[in-house]
Amino acid sequence: MDWVADLPPAVQRISSVLAGWRTARTSRRVLFVIHSLTAATRLADLLPIFQDQRIQLYCTQTSDSMFPSGVEKFMQDRGFLCLTWEQAIALEFHAVITASLGDNLHEIQSPILRISHGNGYNKRWISDQRSAISDQRSAISDQRSAISDQRSAINNQQSTINNQRLACLPTR
What share of the chain is helix, strand, coil (3-state, %, to 5)? Predict the structure, then answer.
């Protein structure tokens, strides 16, 4: 484990990464992968379910995150055992939890649980569904145009009838 030398000295001395230095035995290792501060706040909602002493939480940020601002401070403020991306992909975890897709998440070899961080964010659309929705929208648009044309025709007819009625009135 060459990467252990990159850990802060305190973490090197008492670390759940190094089995010989554990202060309490843990039986499960869980990694939070954070892509952005928005995703981090969503993952923080899950922290209460990981208060079990047998679970060791780790945290990392993907190496090619598009929105890294604030993530490192967020992790430090919550006392996570932070790993670099290289360290995280070198270790095995019982579960990896993330609230975002993409970046280099595919490099993790452990089971990944993806949670949503917004309404519909992780919806998966099949191109056929998109095409069907597009076709439905086109049909609705065509129907609206036809209704508009019918309204115009009705208005024209009413104007003609009103003009005819006016023409029939006696003049003084």
Answer: 50, 15, 40
Give DSSP secondary structure letters for 68-111.
Answer: -TTHHHHHHHTT-EE--HHHHHHS--SEEEES---TTGGG--S-
For 42-58, write each residue's pLDDT tens digit.
Answer: 888 888 888 877 888 88
Per DSSP, 67 falls in state -
**CA dist 136 → 111, 123, 143 (Å):** 38, 20, 10
pLDDT reported for residue 53? 78
pTM attached to this predicted model = 0.55
CA distances from 98 to 44, 64, 130, 165 (A): 11, 15, 26, 73
Q: Which residues of 125-140 are buried (b: 16+ CB within 10 A; e: fewer)?
A: eeeeeeeeeeeeeeee
Structural tokens at position 88: 């995280």
19, β-bridge pairs: none
| Cα–Cα distance, 67 to 82 (Å, whole number) | 18
**Which SS3 state, helix, strand or coil, does residue 22 take?**
coil
